[in-house]
Lipoprotein (Streptomyces salyersiae), 104 residues
Amino acid sequence: MSRTRRLHRPSRTTAGLTAAAAVLALFTGACSIEEAVCGGGEYPVMTVNGGGSACVPDGEEPSKGWVRYPEGKVPQHVGDTWDVYWETHTLDENGRTVELPEGE
């Protein structure tokens, strides 16, 4: 006696769950998009002896009282390592890294 196997097509439930998982993956992935500190054509600067930051158009120098971040320590995205670090640190008038006083 020979037996024949029937191939089973995926049920509508399986297809629905697969589609739902794909949509969920798209939404979850969208949440991981990093927000840039500055827009295109700009670079970030910080206040001397203060906790302020801003963006300056490429090709322009920062205004008096503002400085560029030290090379290799420039925040690129909101919440990245350097963005978090500079929340509690700044540069003094001599370019040395110093801790910000509490509440700055």
Notes: The beta strands are 42-47, 53-57, 66-68, 89-91, 97-99. The first strand starts at residue 42 and ends at 47. Residues 42-99 form one domain.
